[in-house]
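Q: Convert this sequence to structure tokens.
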Amino acid sequence: MKTSIATVSISGNFREKLDAIAKAGYDGIEIFEQDFIAHDGGPREVARMVRDHGLDIPLFQPFRDFECLPEPLRSKAFDRAKRKFDVMNELGTDLILFCSSCHPASLGGIDRAADDFAELGEVAKAHGVRVGYEALAWGRHINDHRDAWEIVRRADHDNIGLIVDSFHTLGRKLDPNSIRSIPGDKIFFVQLADAPLIDMDLLYWSRHFRNMPGEGDLDVTGFMRAVMASGYAGPISLEIFNDQFRGGNPLTIAQDGYRSLISLMDDVRTAEPTILIDLPPIPPRVDIKGVSFIEFAARGEDAKKLSTLLTSLGFVHTGHHRNKEIGLWQQGDIRIVLNSEDSGHAAHVWNARGLSVCDIGLKVGSAKDTVARATALGASPFEQPIGPGELSIPAIRGLEGSVLHFIDEESGLSRVWDVEFVATGEAATADAGLKRIDHIAQTMSYDNMLSWTLFYTALFDMDKSPMVDVIDPDGLVRSQVVESEGRGFCVSLNGAETHRTLAGDFLAQSFGASVQHIALATDDIFATAEALKACGFDPLPLSDNYYADLAARFDLSPGLLERLKAANVFYDELNGSPFFQLYSRSFAGGMFFEIVQREPGYGGYGAANAPFRIAAQKRLARPKGMPAMKG
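A:
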């Protein structure tokens, strides 16, 4: 299976785009004519550059407004085509994309268009090139791949074929299964793009909001199942128009695209096992059974302060690493690791970001298969020197410098706590009733949210929720949840658009650290609140206005309302199922812990409370000398 991406899909000049595309692992590029024209080298020099990067050029595009024109526009269109065919010969590519005409003078007519392409086929044959015809979703007369195929069929020329694009089909809500009946050898090329479902003009939607397969809401998998069922055996390519991508890191965007293609085609192979797809076998998406540990890079006074906070949360320092300055804190099924090493990954994170989460360990069925899938999708394995008596735990590098380790039962990796750690003998002074990690919240620039979502959903068996807006007093934060089946691993992804928001300030203060808060689950939040009070825990204080509003919004008994207020507990409910939240005060530039009690039937994350939690956190963070808000 040959992979490709259109140069228009990523930012940078032509050389920068080639570098990124080659490093991401693609086989070829679609040269977008604008990128070629803007480059300061001729077609032969461009061809050499492409080959020097180990790439080929399966497509040159686009050629606009060709078919059904009256004279003298028709003759001019043929003349333009001949000139482009000459350029293709010098570039060393034999296929060009002709998109359906939007020209106001275009006359329309299936037979007229077919006659034009039949004649063009002879010109293309003389130049040794092929022409692929694509129906634009906003084409003047042809905006449906079925009509485009009928034109190609009637043209009946070996050098004229069809190009199909998932956006142009799915964006118009056309059934892609009609592609199954098209002979695969007459489909010359396939372009792919996903998009969020937005009700807007098709052209504007296409030019600004396309994204990688798996990042949007279109059924790109169903589209590709139909394409592969036709017998198509050519390149699979990405053509993405997206304002964020145009300003993003070209290598990151290219890697996202490659990951999306491999994941997509693996899904197609799984759904259509009778279709032969030239793709090496990779393990299926990983089912995450839970969070094994969360590791902080922590040294000196910051490590002491975090230890004090953990003690106030009822955690116990249960173990110390045999070879390293690493401490283990536990409560219930929760493990927090404090790494104070002055070398290795944690030390690098400390030097770059200070106190922050540097590693997350996940419980999986097979750690080996997890890393195999991740590397097949373009992730890099992560390794550090192994000391005496230490286990080799498989790991990968995630996004933004993050690391994920994978622990399973079958290979004995779950014994790491007994093998590598020596018990401290410290006994619990007060069990606060915290049982497990409910979810973690990761903060990133809004422009990087799609990358994070794709990373998780391509590698793991996780579903994504619709994106929601979280109102900060100083701006907007976009939030989207990805969670595994059974809620073994749940991540709230929060995209900051300005440093003035709490999320944006955290990014600035931590120099890009991702994990901003960790939510810990309890079965009885009021018992937990009492235990935490005895441990010296200092909760985030809430205003009286919040509880007055609760009384208006929900039918709560006076007793429950008083208990909520006394413990500084947030409340929400869904279809009668309650949800309780209690927060620590912020530390280390904006990190915090959350304690939750969720009842069956409540699948959310208390989004309705987020603006009030943010306001309370900002009140505490107000510089000295500023007046306090009343209430």
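Confidence is low (pLDDT under 50) at residues 624-631.
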